[in-house]
Design a protein that fits this description.
Two copies of one chain form a homodimer. By secondary structure, chain A is an alpha/beta fold. In chain A, strand 1, helix 1 and strand 2 form a beta-alpha-beta unit. In chain A, helix 5 packs across helix 9 and helix 6 packs parallel to helix 9. Chain A has a four-stranded parallel β-sheet, covered by helices on one side. The first copy, chain A, is built from ten helices and seven strands. Chain A has two domains: 74 residues, Rossmann fold (3-Layer(aba) Sandwich), CATH 3.40.50; 145 residues, Rossmann fold, CATH 3.40.50. Chains A and B meet through helix 6, helix 7, helix 8 and helix 10 of A and helix 6, helix 7, helix 8 and helix 10 of B.
Amino acid sequence: VDEKWVVVAVSYSGNTEETVSAYREARDRSCRVFCVTTGGELGRISNAGYTQRIPEGLQPRAALPILLSVTMGLTERVLGLEPTDFGRVSENVQRNQEVWGSHIDRPETLASEIYGSVPLFLAQGHLVPVAYRAKCQFNENAKYSAFSLEMPEANHNEIEASVSYQRFAIRPVFLESSFQSERMSRRYEATRAVMSTERSMKLTIPSENRLDEMLSLTHYLDMVSLELALLHGVDPVGVDRISELKSRLAG
Amino acid sequence: VDEKWVVVAVSYSGNTEETVSAYREARDRSCRVFCVTTGGELGRISNAGYTQRIPEGLQPRAALPILLSVTMGLTERVLGLEPTDFGRVSENVQRNQEVWGSHIDRPETLASEIYGSVPLFLAQGHLVPVAYRAKCQFNENAKYSAFSLEMPEANHNEIEASVSYQRFAIRPVFLESSFQSERMSRRYEATRAVMSTERSMKLTIPSENRLDEMLSLTHYLDMVSLELALLHGVDPVGVDRISELKSRLAG
């Protein structure tokens, strides 16, 4: 990473330790650095002309749409790509809600189905970050265990562990793309067949393109995590343990 | 990846689909490609002068020492680094066994302690692959669920999930390095304090350097996975589900 690099430092609070220190290092290496933040330390030390301020008062994990639209727009400009029309993306994601209850369970139905077991999200390619986000949302919103793994890597080892899924109430949830190759679909099918007794689930949302698919599944799984918080009887906003950790580290 | 790159294709059987296709692509891009294999398809198509044949008849996951010593030796030659003395490494790893039962539980003791719960290995830096290897060995050898996550990333979300650990019999197992920073040690300590009711475990093996530490912990956790296979009443060598998957994909 040297002066030929463009770096984008993104921190909702502006106080994320790792982001602030990475910003400083990038600047010291003479990179051009853009910042996306509500303010905080990053807002204080960054160059105002290269900083996009975003609205305060959201939960950082609920700020995904605004963070994504700003950073993607910026990246597209830097790389000289066709800019994404986020108005249209937003409409598509909203429209994809219409299949909830028909092509895919309603979020409260899936939450009830999952409640009492530990979901393991399995995904490939562009859906890998969606699976990881789902894991984190289940953790933070519902204070609930969840894991995610990448396919086909998971085939080489996880499949042998599935013998013990029922014992430990682990439920494999396959996030499958409408855009995956025939070969990958066969692999998913074979994996689910081998795990046939493990009550695996398959989730797909019909979408116009990969970005819509990523965001529609993210939106859907975010809602599932909120329904799960209700069932679990916890406040989805509070993050008591993260706060306790931070105060222990500061103290 | 172009003709300036050196590529090393490693497949114990020589028939790993991804490795064989990556080998072909690297060759087509005019890279210099070395191969490490027992034979198979990779052995058939590769340039014999750039191929290191290794002994057949091992379980691929048990071939780690030989695969590592060959690929590391090769990498060191290509990069012009000081070659590692694997005789000495091997002696150190053997000597580090002497602390089993004193500084660290005997493998059978830890296996009994873990049996009945799902271990979640948490590690940082050079111990991240050790944690992932442990997860895979628990899966393949003991047909047993296990997960791994990277610190400090796991702090941001996993810590909220720990509220549900007892319910789902999840046991956090922290792999801590003797070489980690003071700051990281404080972070581990604070994390374990927040999770105080979750019966977390900490594993450390006193070692001469990072490589010895990685291999000594790997050796130790491999042994734990074999002890767990005994408790679980399964054959650590067989991989029935992987074989079933392969035959479904071939059929």
